[in-house]
Amino acid sequence: MLCCMPGVAFVPALLVVWSSAAFIISYVIAVLEGHVEPLVPYISDTGTKPPESGIFGFMINISALLGVITMYIRYLLIEKQNESSHFVRSSFNIFSLCIGLMGCIGMGIVATFQELSVPIVHDIGALVAFGSGVLYITLQSILSYKSCPQWNTYFMCQIRMTISVISCIAFIPMIVFASRISMTKIDWTPGEK
């Protein structure tokens, strides 16, 4: 099986490195071009105006593809482990994969529809990406606990669940504050709300 092939472990690492590079490169270009303020802009703000918008969109779409590959490898790994241990229903693993794939589709939407060009589509994509991402992380944490101790250590399960809890906690204010913003723009003047 693909998940048991030597070398597939590089895919999640490549996903992290590529995604980080996408954010950092578009941020650096946006700051150097004067399109955003250097102090903590929204990720989407760094991919709104050319030339960084093209780089941002291209690299995030590649990240979404790498995410799909990573999630599919994880799905196959859980299926293979489950053949001998029967620690989870196959439908739970499939459901988790589908949620993860939805998050990747959301990433593709965010990358393709820039924040200022089509804000409603961009915002829906971001909501799908982040919401599905948080749910996927939580489902994977549950899978880790179910496969413990044969396929995971309790320490690893606790790390994954901590990340899940932090993600859930961070998702709530993101939704609250994003819903309070009535307009999408990058340049704010001191007198605006």
Automatic annotation (TrEMBL):
A single GO BP: regulation of autophagy
This protein's UniProt keywords: Membrane, Transmembrane, Transmembrane helix
Keyword Transmembrane: yes
InterPro entries reported for this sequence: CWH43_N (IPR019402), DRAM/TMEM150_Autophagy_Mod (IPR050911)
Transmembrane parts of this sequence: 54-73, 94-114, 120-139, 159-178
GO cellular component assignments: endomembrane system; lysosome
Sequence ranges assigned to domain CWH43-like N-terminal in this UniProt record: 8-183
Highest taxon of the lineage: Eukaryota
Entry membrane topology: Multi-pass membrane protein
Keyword Oxidoreductase carried by entry: no
Localization in the cell: Endomembrane system
PANTHER family membership: DNA DAMAGE-REGULATED AUTOPHAGY MODULATOR PROTEIN 1, FASTING-INDUCIBLE INTEGRAL MEMBRANE PROTEIN TM6P1-RELATED
Similarity comment text for this entry: Belongs to the DRAM/TMEM150 family.
Protein's name in the database: DRAM1 protein
